[in-house]
Amino acid sequence: MLAHHLNFAIHRSTPVHLGVTGSVAAYKSAEILRMLLQVGLDVSVTLTSGAAKFVSPLLFESLGASAVYTSLWDTPDSAFGHLEPAQKTKAMLVAPATANTLAKMAHGIADEILSTQYLAFQGPVLVAPTMNPRLFEASATQDNLALLQKRGVKILEPESGEMACGETGRGRLPNLEYMVIEVLRALTVQDMAGTHVLVTLGPTQEFFDPVRYWTNPSTGLMGACLAMAAWLRGAKVSVVHGPVDLWFPPDVARVPVVSARQMYEACIDLWPTQDIGLMSAAVSDFSPVPFTGGKFKKRDIQDGDMRVAFTSNPDILRTLGENKAPGQKLLGFCAETGNLEHWASFKLQEKHCDLMVANSVTAEGSGFAVPTNIVYVLDAKGRNETWPTLSKSEIGWRLMEWMTQLLD
Ligand code: C5P
Question: Has 225 been annotated as catalytic?
Answer without folding.
Answer: no
